[in-house]
Design a protein that fits this description.
CATH class of the largest domain: Alpha Beta
Strand content: 15-25%
Bound molecules: N-carbamoyl-L-aspartate
Structural class: alpha/beta
Largest sheet: 6 strands, mixed
CATH architecture of the largest domain: 3-Layer(aba) Sandwich
Number of strands: 18
Shape: globular
Strand order of the largest sheet: 7-8-6-5-9-10
Helix content: 25-40%
Number of helices: 15
Number of domains: 3
CATH superfamily of the largest domain: Aspartate/ornithine carbamoyltransferase
Distance between the termini: 52 Å
Radius of gyration: 24 Å
Oligomer: single chain
C-alpha cells in the first residue's frame, strides 16, 4: 500500500496501521541513515517556517538531505511575499510548482490545510498555531513504542500548557486511538480546550472524568489532576467510586509524564500572563523520587524553558533528547512515503481498534457564519478574500459547529429551512436553534444564522414555532 501524494495535516489523517508502518520504515532507516542517499534523489522539499523552530525544521531538512533530495527554505514571513499581502493559497500554488513536497509551520490555525488545498503536492503540517503538530506526535509515539514496547493501553500524564500546546492536542487524539488512559495535569488556567475534549469523548468512545481536588498534587509537586480520559477498555467503574478508585489509580503511576512549556507567545490576556507567573511547577529529581514514578519516563517536545530541571537530564527515565533525535528517521520515513519513494508494509491490526467516528454533515452555506477563533486562518484579512468558512455539525444538542480549519466550535442561535412553505418568499421563517424545529429540518436543507439580523437581512421572519424549550 502506498502513502504517495497524501498530506499530513492532522494526526487523524493517518490510521493506526499507517502510523505503525511509518515506524517500521523509520526502524529500517535508522540502522543505516547514511545509506539512504538514493531514496529521494532528484526531489525537492520546500521547508516554509513562519514561526521559530530548531528541531522540527532542522530534522526535516536533515531527513531530506539524508534521503539524497534537496531543500529550499524560507524561515521568516518578512522575507516572502506574504509580507506584501499575498495569500497563503497563492504562495502554496507557486511553491507547489517548484517543489515535490512542502513542509509548513505557520502561526495561524488551519494554515497548513489551506496550503494542502492549493499546493497540488504532498503537504506536511509542522505546526499550525495552537492547533496541531502531527509529526511531533509521530516522534512521541515512536519513543513510547521504543521505551514501552507497545502503544496499546498506555497510561500517560499530559502536563503544563494543554490549552495552547499544539503537540498535546495531536498526541491526545493519537493516544486515545491506541487505547491509552490520559491524565490531564494542566497548569491551572491552561486546561485542554473543550473542542479537544469533545472529540476525545464523542469520537473515541472513552469517557472523561473531571476532578475537583484530587489532591495527590501538592504533596507530589504535580499540577492537580484536572481530568482523566478513560479508554473504552479501561476500568469504567472509576466513575462510580471516584474517590477510592482514583486514588488507587494514581498510586499505580503512569508510563510517561509528557511535559510542555507554557506557550507564552500565544497568551492573549494579561490575566493569563499573571496565571503563568503564579503557577510554576518544575519536574525535578525530587519529584521523580516519589512513589509511583519509578518506571515513569519523562518526555517533552522541547524546547524547555524552566519546567524541566537540568539535573534530571542524566536520569535514564529522561527521554526528551532521544525523542528529538528520533525525529530524523521518522521524518525520513514520512518524506519517502509521501513522495512515493517507498511503499508501505501495513502490519496486521493488533488489539482492539478505537476507530474514529466521522460522518458529520458539512455546512458550507454562505450565511454569514464565522469561526470565533481569532487565530483561525479563516479570520485573517489576506485569506477572507477566497476562503469560504466551512463547518461540521458535530452536535444538535446544543447546535454545535466545528470549524473545518482550526476545529474550534461555535454555537449559532438561529436556524431555518431552505424549503419554506409552498416556495413563497413570504413564508420564509427562522427559528431558535434550541427549539424542536432543529430536529424537524433535514440537514441538507438546514440554514444557520449567527444573529437575527442575518436572518432578517435574508428575508426570513421569526416563525411561530420558534419558542425556546
Ligand atoms: C513544539 C512546537 O513547536 O509546538 N516544539 C517542537 O516542535 N519540538 C513545542 C514548543 O514549542 O513548546
Amino acid at each position: 500500500m502506498s502513502l504517495a501524494n497524501r498530506d499530513l495535516i492532522t494526526i487523524e489523517d493517518f490510521s493506526n496501521q499507517e502510523i505503525e508502518a511509518v515506524f517500521a520504515l523509520a526502524d529500517e532507516m535508522s540502522g543505516s541513515l547514511s545509506q539512504q542517499s538514493d531514496v529521494c534523489r532528484g526531489m525537492i522539499m520546500a521547508s516554509l517556517f513562519f514561526e521559530p523552530s530548531t528541531r522540527t525544521r532542522l530534522s526535516f531538512e536533515v531527513a531530506m538531505n539524508r534521503l539524497g533530495g534537496r531543500v529550499i527554505s524560507v524561515v521568516e514571513m518578512s522575507n516572502t511575499s506574504l509580507a506584501k499581502g499575498e495569500s497563503i493559497a497563492d504562495m502554496a500554488r507557486v511553491v507547489g510548482s517548484y517543489a515535490d513536497i512542502i513542509v509548513i509551520r505557520h502561526p495561524w490555525e488551519g494554515a497548513a490545510k489551506v496550503v494542502a488545498d492549493y499546493a497540488g503536492v504532498p503537504v506536511i503540517n509542522a505546526g499550525d498555531g495552537g492547533h496541531e503538530h502531527p509529526t511531533q506526535t509521530l516522534c512521541d509515539l515512536y519513543t513510547l513504542k521504543k521505551e514501552r514496547r507497545t502503544l496499546e493501553g498506555l497510561k500517560i500524564a499530559l502536563w503544563g500548557d494543554l490549552k495552547y500546546g499544539r503537540t498535546v492536542h495531536s498526541l491526545a487524539y493519537a493516544l486515545a486511538r491506541f487505547g491509552a488512559t490520559i491524565h490531564f495535569r494542566p497548569s491551572p488556567g491552561f486546561e485542554m480546550p473543550e473542542h479537544v475534549i469533545r472529540k476525545l469523548t464523542a469520537e473515541y468512545a472513552g469517557i472523561l472524568e473531571r476532578f475537583n481536588g484530587v489532591e495527590d498534587a501538592d504533596e507530589k509537586g504535580l499540577f492537580p489532576l484536572d481530568a482523566m480520559y478513560i479508554t473504552p477498555s479501561g476500568p469504567h467503574q472509576l466513575a462510580n467510586i471516584p474517590a477510592v478508585g482514583i486514588q488507587i489509580e494514581l498510586e499505580k503511576g503512569v508510563d510517561a509524564l509528557y511535559v510542555t512549556r507554557l506557550q507564552k507567545e500565544r497568551l492573549d490576556t494579561a490575566a493569563e500572563r499573571q496565571e503563568l507567573e503564579k503557577n510554576h511547577r518544575v519536574v525535578d529529581r525530587k519529584l521523580l523520587r516519589k512513589k509511583g514514578f519509578e518506571e515513569t519516563i519523562v518526555m517533552h517536545p522541547l524546547p524547555r524553558v524552566d519546567e524541566l530541571a537540568y539535573e534530571i537530564d542524566a536520569d535514564p527515565r529522561s527521554m526528551y533528547f532521544k525523542q528529538a533525535e528520533r525525529g530524523v528517521p521518522i521524518r525520513m520515513a514520512l518524506i519517502a512515503l509521501l513522495l512515493g519513494a517507498k511503499e508501505l508494509d501495513i502490519p496486521a491490526a493488533k488489539g482492539p481498534s478505537f476507530a474514529r467516528k466521522r460522518d458529520y454533515h458539512v455546512y458550507k452555506r454562505d450565511t454569514g457564519l464565522r469561526c470565533r477563533n481569532r487565530e483561525c486562518v479563516t479570520n485573517q484579512e489576506t485569506e477572507t478574500r477566497y476562503i469560504k468558512p466551512e463547518f461540521e455539525i458535530v452536535s444538535n444538542d446544543p447546535l454545535t459547529l466545528r470549524c473545518a480549519y482550526c476545529e474550534h466550535e461555535i454555537h449559532p442561535q438561529y436556524i431555518a429551512s431552505s424549503k419554506w412553505h409552498q416556495g413563497i418568499a413570504e413564508n420564509k421563517r427562522y427559528y431558535y436553534a434550541d427549539s424542536f424545529m432543529l430536529g424537524r429540518i433535514q440537514q441538507e436543507n438546514l440554514i444557520i444564522f449567527d444573529s437575527e439580523d442575518e436572518a432578517l437581512a435574508r428575508g426570513f421572519k421569526l416563525g411561530k414555532k420558534s419558542h425556546k424549550e
